[in-house]
User: Fold these one by one.
Assistant:
Number 1:
Amino acid sequence: MPSNKPNQKPFNFSKISVCLAMSAFISLGHLILSEAAYADVDHATTSIFFGMTTGAEDGDPQSLKNTMKEIGKNFKLIGGSFSDASQADANAARANRVAELLTLALDKTPDKIDQLPASEQADALKRFQDEIKNMISLVRELAADLQAKKMDALSAIMSKIKDAKQKGHDEFKEEDNGH
Ligand code: HEM
């Protein structure tokens, strides 16, 4: 009696390795596809999230919030270098830019005024516009001093601007806005 049955084949290792390689390949494919899907969902979620949190105000580049943001960026740069004479021309240009931006703010109404009783809004808007106009002249004075390289005069005018900004924010800016 023959010890090997005629139809029974020994293990074929080369076939097993091909199978293993194929299933590894398929799993890798699934992994790549699911990562891609995740990335899409993630992207969509991020867009929706940003749309909800920043879309309303940031959609209008000339909103009061965005105008103030740009004023703030320019002013930070001036504040960090106003006593440096080599920066005087660059800072004069920034101060003039701030004055232009403040002119845009003259046409806006802070949310805080919108929330007042109707009978108080006109007076409040007038005070807001007067304070913005006052700030425009202070900032123009700063630009002129910088252009004339009157370095000794800068601290005093900067401190007037700081106080006027504080006054404007105390009255017209909502508490939770930071800055
Ligand atoms: C150089 C002077 C000023 C600087 C540097 C400045 C800067 C800023 C900054 C950084 C913000 C926050 C913007 C944001 O939410 O990201 C802001 C908001 C605001 N500022 Fe000023 N500001 C100045 C003067 C004034 C003045 C004089 C007034 C009013 C008379 C004023 C009224 C407001 C109001 C109402 C907001 C809130 C805007 C909103 O969220 O709708 N600011 N400002």
Note: Residues 60-177 form a domain with the Four Helix Bundle (Hemerythrin (Met), subunit A) fold (CATH 1.20.120).
Number 2:
Amino acid sequence: MKKMLCAALAAAVLAGGGALLAWRGAAAPAMGPALRGGALIIDAGHGGEDGGAVSITGALESQINLDVALKLEDVLAFYGVAPELLRREDLSLHDVGSETLREKKVSDLHNRERMIRELGCGLLVSIHQNSYPDGRYRGAQVFYAPTEGSKAVAEHVQAALAAGLDPDNGRKAKPIPDSVYLLNHVDCAAILVECGFLTNPEEEALLRSDGYQRRLAAVLAGAILTAPGPTNEDTGV
Ligand SMILES: [Zn+2]
């Protein structure tokens, strides 16, 4: 079973990461420029009582986020990179004392913020899924924090998602809205990846599937490892 998983992951890396490396025109270093400033932190959005968005077939965003985050960790291990995951289970990270759902959500976000600081963040990658009342809309989109280096990483990851996963996706990386707490309360480079729309029938089915999640993780891993760091962002290297 374990061997099968490894073989499947290796295939995913070859399919996703390999295509990306060809696109970059260079081999990925084990530790890319964006990761030289501290820990790579992966945040699977929501969890526990906060399920996030609900898909058109009733799947919870929180579970898909966690599935993608864990697969991303697996793919990164092939490159010798061990990220820090803020959660590895279906749980909310709120304090014991919080009672209402609102209190729990606020406490959860404050705890994520504290963990990110304590881990010595170099790059934060927050994984989410999008939703919209109109089911026509689809496509992964990357948002970036107002911190140094975030925009360059987001544009790099957005381009990789189009090149390695969905050539029809013409979406552009955008600044994170003020309403998103976590990315507005970190000091490190940070991006939020909306992997796709849970309200689009075709994309929702893909986002729930093991194979697509693995391809997504492979493309994200390749992009993270080759992302520009804050020191070379200005020179365009
Ligand atoms: Zn979300």
Note: The helical segments are 2-24, 61-78, 101-118, 150-164, 201-208, 210-226.
